[in-house]
From TrEMBL:
Location of the active site: K57 (for sulfotransferase activity)
Domain of life: Eukaryota
Descriptive protein name: [heparan sulfate]-glucosamine N-sulfotransferase
Residues where 3'-phosphoadenylyl sulfate binds: S155, K276, G277, R278, I279, Y280
Taxonomic classification: Eukaryota, Metazoa, Ecdysozoa, Arthropoda, Crustacea
Bridged cysteine pairs (disulfide): C261-C271
Compartment(s) of residence: Golgi apparatus membrane
Ranges of residues in domain Sulfotransferase: 48-296
Similarity annotation: Belongs to the sulfotransferase 1 family. NDST subfamily.
């Protein structure tokens, strides 16, 4: 029997078990041996009970804002880099470890709100994300919002233009969504960001490989926009949140904004910023047709999946499938 210094030992270990080189953070509270060596001041109650996982441009900020209004719900502290989103389970932040993640949530003793949550709209389509979330937060509930995938793609394109993305400014929406695999890298990347998240059924199925359907709630983003009180009531029931918050008194349609906003006074509302509910020209008929065809197989799969999971088929999906 022979041993070597730790670094060499690690190199040999990962040479033999390359799959383990990518860490997967488990839940310390799931194993009493881990609990025994964990610092006393740490608690699994400093982890979120539910996640809003996106995808982007489906109304996730409105949902986040409405949830954060609830007295029993507490959102994560903002991140200096990604603002209200922590974006832990996808990308490089994951390698910063769970202590880094937990710092985004209050120590339970310092807060009366029982339901901690975070919203990172980039989680939805991330390949590795469901497995990682399952390992750390096996009991977490997951909230997904969906709108017409074509509309989502168009909203993303305008989002990028509004952020002065060079490619979005240079190429038309039509050029982006129809770009071939020989197109410049930046165009392909923008095309994928427009189109891939909208392949809803494929992504939801991946989450369902790791979580039971009873832990997942799919919200019709169009309903969230037109009737947020109904959606928030339904969501409170799904999350099992007490006390029940009466959103009727706290959300009001703002004619100027054209959306529901938070009531902050007798005749005053606080709406989301200019980046949410942007005004842009409607999509060209030819792009509408192109995207309808492009998304058809994904939309057929979505309709089947929603029916199987006992959700009503949203009217936009029926229209997209016509
Ligand atoms: P547009 O700006 O393209 O209209 P996300 O927060 O996930 O990025 O989604 C942004 C979209 O949320 C907006 O897209 C807007 O249509 C929609 N939305 C839904 N409810 C809203 C609300 N109450 N206020 C503002 N935007 C809302």
């Amino acid at each position: 029997l022979q041993t070597v210094p730790p670094l060499q030992l690690a190199e040999q270990y990962f040479h033999r078990f390359p799959d383990e080189a990518d860490p997967i953070w488990g839940n310390p509270c799931a194993d009493h041996r881990h609990m025994q060596i964990w610092a006393k001041e740490k608690s699994c109650d400093q982890l979120p009970k539910f996640l809003v996982i996106g995808p982007q441009k489906t109304g996730t900020t409105a949902l986040y804002t409405f949830l954060a209004m609830h007295p029993a719900i507490l959102a994560n502290y903002p991140s200096p880099e990604t603002f209200e989103e922590v974006q832990f389970f996808n990308g490089k932040n994951y390698y910063k470890g769970i202590d880094w993640y937990m710092k985004f949530f209050p120590v339970p003793a310092n807060s009366s709100a029982k339901f901690l949550f975070e919203k990172s709209a980039t989680y939805f389509e991330g390949d590795v994300v469901p497995r990682r979330v399952r390992a750390l937060l096996p009991a977490a509930k997951l909230v997904i919002t969906i709108i017409s995938p074509s509309k989502r793609a168009y909203s993303w394109y305008h989002h990028m233009r509004a952020h002065s993305d060079h490619t979005a400014l240079l190429y038309s929406f039509h050029q982006v969504i129809t770009a071939s695999d020989t197109a410049p890298r930046a165009v392909r990347s923008l095309r994928n960001k427009c189109l891939v998240p909208g392949m809803y059924a494929r992504h939801i199925e991946r989450w369902l490989n790791h979580f039971p359907s009873s832990q997942i709630n799919i919200i019709d983003g169009e309903e969230l926009r037109s009737d947020p009180v109904y959606v928030m009531n339904d969501l409170q029931r799904f999350l099992g949140i007490q006390p029940f918050y009466n959103y009727t008194e706290h959300l009001r349609f703002d004619k100027r904004k054209g959306f529901f906003c938070q009531v902050v006074g007798e005749d005053r509302t606080k709406c989301l910023g200019r980046g949410k509910g942007r005004i842009y020209p409607s999509m060209n008929e030819s792009d509408v047709k192109y995207l309808k065809e492009f998304y058809q197989p994904y939309n057929i799969a979505l309709e089947k999946l929603l029916t199987k999971l006992d959700y009503p088929v949203p009217s936009w999906l029926e229209e997209d499938l016509q």
